[in-house]
Write a structure and sequence with these properties.
298 residues, alpha/beta, Spore Coat Polysaccharide Biosynthesis Protein SpsA, Chain A, 21% strand
Length: 298
């Protein structure tokens, strides 16, 4: 792969420490044939100033605070495509790349040059696997997670999946040229990555989780994780209707109509809506009934 043909796109907003640690991890990579683009969407915590001072090699783009994940990511993707990128990687600021992460991604990209490759996610603190891809079942509105079916000795190489999050996703530039960018109109903050990979799959591109490319993550750092961590009626409302809410009903409906096969649409919507409306409340009730629920792993 030629110098600078890989661009890593990182949207950030008011998480200077996360961003700093992520960029440090990229400086430690065993290969360095990539260019980093950070899109700072209106941070007020000195993120841009830190990047300019400590990481002058990073391409810094700026937003006004209204781009959210998808708009900021698309800004970086457009820049990379305009500068003749062959591959693009979308990466979240709350991740830490293991030293051989990029090397392992490029290794498999050479063997599957038209595939989308996702990262094998481990908990930053425990180093235990958190996410290794899944296969969606539209009929039951559920997913089979590969971590539940693979044996530990199989945690290596590529495993095909039906969709993937944008966290550490390596995508050939031709995919963007074929199907377009992430959908910022309908999915400004979440689900744009799942929607994008579904579209890529329908266009004939395979999607894999690369178990050799390990990415450390913070499972509780997402907006919806925080809404679910501190249960309240206000957070329940934001969970169902807020832009960061994992149970956002409007977003789920659009996602279903865009991607679910028509013969399963009614089932998928019914089951999915029920889980989103009731799941938060049931978790809340469980925590109230069993106050040590999380600690004792009930």
């Amino acid at each position: 792969m030629t110098q600078n043909s890989l661009y890593i796109v990182i949207p950030v907003h008011n998480r200077r420490d996360f961003t700093h640690n992520c960029l440090i991890s990229l400086q430690r990579q065993t290969v360095q044939n990539f260019q980093i683009i950070v899109i700072d969407d209106g941070s007020k915590d000195g993120t841009s100033e830190m990047i300019q001072k400590e990481f002058p090699e990073v391409i810094l783009l700026r937003g006004d605070g209204n781009l959210w994940w998808t708009g900021a990511t698309n800004l970086g993707v457009r820049y990379a495509l305009e500068h003749d990128a062959d591959y693009l990687m979308t990466l979240n600021d709350d991740t830490i790349a293991t030293d051989s992460f990029i090397e392992k991604m490029l290794f498999w990209a050479e063997r599957e040059p038209k595939a989308l490759l996702g990262a094998f996610a481990l908990d930053t603190e425990t180093k235990k696997p958190v996410y290794g891809g899944s296969h969606i079942n539209w009929k039951t509105a559920s997913s089979t997670h590969l971590l539940d079916v693979l044996k530990p000795e199989e945690f290596h190489g590529l495993h095909e999946v039906s969709h993937f999050p944008g966290r550490g996703l390596l995508t050939p530039a031709e995919v963007f040229n074929m199907i377009g960018l992430f959908d910022a109109k309908h999915f400004p903050q979440a689900a744009a990555d799942y929607d994008f990979t579904h579209r890529a799959c329908r266009a004939g591109y395979k999607i894999f989780c690369n178990y050799d490319a390990k990415l450390l993550i913070y499972p509780t750092a997402s907006g919806d994780a925080q809404l679910r961590e501190k249960k309240s009626m206000k957070n329940y409302y934001y969970h169902l209707f807020g832009i960061k809410g994992g149970g956002n009903l409007k977003r789920f409906t659009i996602y279903a109509f865009r991607n679910c096969p028509w013969k399963y649409l009614v089932l998928f919507l019914t089951i999915g809506m029920t889980r989103r409306v009731c799941g938060y409340l049931m978790d809340w009730l469980s925590e109230t009934t069993f106050p040590y629920h999380k600690q004792n792993n009930f």
